[in-house]
Amino acid sequence: MAIFATSAAAEPTVEVLRVDPVEVTAEPDKALVEACRSWSLSKEQVAEFFGLAQEYEISPYASYYQTPCSITGELTSSGEVWKYSINGGATAVWMKGDVTRYWGCSKPECEKLVLLPTDFMRGD
After folding, report:
1. Which residues, at least 6 apart from 76, have a Cβ–Cβ distance to it below 8 Å?
2. What is the pTM of this model?
């Protein structure tokens, strides 16, 4: 199944209202869990992530690595408040009611913001 990025709102203007501490789930890879516990993003970095990220029609899960950690919070875009979750593998979602928007950050500039950058970031 092909995953298509949307052209509309590919670079949203966001105001980050809140950044929660990283959430880490159990994982057999102790080194990755430790990296997760050390990972954090500021409000400015969350806004940068979404400014660089591409929006997808469906979850781009298969195109990115997944980590056992995420950073959550709230942001506003176009006057609407959304809950967000950024996975350490460079995917993210916005949620509001029964609406979910999917994001993936594959530009080289995203690498400094995530734990496991996608292979697409290499520019190969």
Report:
1. 14, 15, 17, 82
2. 0.85
pLDDT at position 86, please? 98
pLDDT tens for residues 69-78?
999 999 999 9
Q: Please name the residues in contact with 54: beta carbons below 8 A apart, sequence gap of 6 or more.
A: 5, 6, 10, 103, 104, 105, 106
Residues 120 and 100: beta-carbon distance below 8 Å: no
Residues 6+ apart with CB under 8 A from 25: 68, 69
Pick the closest to residue 71 from 18, 23, 14, 16 (CA basis).
Answer: 23
Q: 14-19 and 54-56 as β-strands: parallel, antiparallel, unpaired? A: unpaired
CB 74 within 8 Å of CB 84: yes
pLDDT, tens digit (0-9, with 9 covering 90-100), for 26-72: 777 888 889 999 999 999 999 999 999 999 999 998 889 999 999 99
φ/ψ region of 24 (left if φ > 0, alpha if ψ in -120 to 50, else beta) reads beta
